Amino acid sequence: MIKVSGLIKDYGTIRAVDNVSFDVAKGSVFAFLGPNGAGKTTLIKMLTTILRPTGGTMRVNGHDPVDDPDEVRRTFGIVFQDPSHDEQLTAYENMDLHGVLYAVPSVERKRKIRELLEFVDLWGRQGDIVKNFSGGMKRRLEIARALLHEPRVLFLDEPTLGLDPQTRHHMWAYIKGLNKDKGVTIFFTTHYMDEAERIAHDVAVIDHGKIVARGAPVDIIKQTGSSSLEDAFIALTGHDIREEEGTTSDRVRLKRAFWRRR
Amino acid sequence: MSVVFALWLRQIKRHFRSRTRLIGSLGQPVLFLLALGFGLGPMFRKAGEGDYLQFLAPGVIAMPILFVAVFSGMEIIWDRQFGFLKETLVAPVSRIQIVLGRVLGGATVAWFQGCLVFLICVIFGFRINNILFLPLALGVMFLLAIFCSAMGTAVASLLEDIQGFQMMMNFLVMPLFFLSNALFPLKGVPPVLRVVIQLNPLSYGIDGLRCCLTGGMLHGLGVDMGVLLVLITAMLALCTWLFSLIQL
Which of A157, B30, B94, B130 is most enclosed, with most CB atoms within 10 A? Predict the structure, then answer.
């Protein structure tokens, strides 16, 4: 379903993604793990056509995101790490606009919007402006929206960030159901290692733009002699805190701004 | 419902839900109308140039069209900052559809604000020469709005953050307005300034509007509309190309 080979992304002299290769099988749940700034979001952006790679090849559902972006766009849904809804529109209007962009027929659109907003417990607030929603509500709306056009691949970039345990549990149950019942391929990133261990069939760990481990969660735990995926993750990526560094592209932008000012 | 219509509707909803935008964009033109229209009016009359309000009104009507349309186009920067741009960039629709929806939405709200200022001008004493030309004047206003909205979209496609907004204001919007035929007639202006004003796209919109509303003109309505149509086509092509280059 997803095939990445020798993928490279450079920002100036900084290499954010360094010769990354992996496959994701159709109908599988794939977790892409790494510390902050490791290159996870950059890779998702390339797979989802909003960033062009410097080198290497990619295929998503048989199509090349660079040469055939519209075909790729038709096949996936995405929940971005940061919000991507319009805060001045209502929850329903955000869903409806998404449905129009993905050419979901009107009658089906109405039915699906209701079904999905009920699923994320927002149907009662469907007419409210999103600006007035809490962080968790906005996240739930993003998830509902990504599912509206019934994608064959679902990219989830930190989907449960800011959600309470109940909603996380509820959301993963639904996503697992989608994967099992409809064969939707799931590609997600998360900092919650317990989620990755519990849900993913396959895991890749990326650090400094390179893949440092790949396999089933159990195999990675075994390979590193750890007791959990979290311990294995720390064994693979080290103890250094990267929390405050920002992403690679943030760093490049800061450098650019600095040189412009000079 | 087409993609263009859905994105157009989004712009309309956003504009009409923001009372500050609706009212805020009227402040400056009304101030110009009162301060300049009535303040400089007697001098203008003494100089034998007639009623200044009659001359000024088309320029003042063009003012919110320029400002609101450019800023609507510049909403791309906000959408980039607050995330909505990603939603449109990953959608399986052509970039021209996205650009058209945005540009037409921005143009419509700017045109609406221009109509409000038009009404205010009439309240303050502005008189239309021939009412039959009113639909044509509204058409010229809309063409001007499309051009300004496309220009805002094109420039905003190049900018990465909100800091670029001030630069746009100081180096594009203000010079376009003040170096046009909005506030003063071209008679007697230095030759260099005359050339600058004649190269300014806004001058053609204002001249077309003045021609429809008061009969006074510099180039003639046909030339004004022709130039505006050519500029709109070129600007739409440019902003679609620049928009298609956006990476996040």
Answer: A157
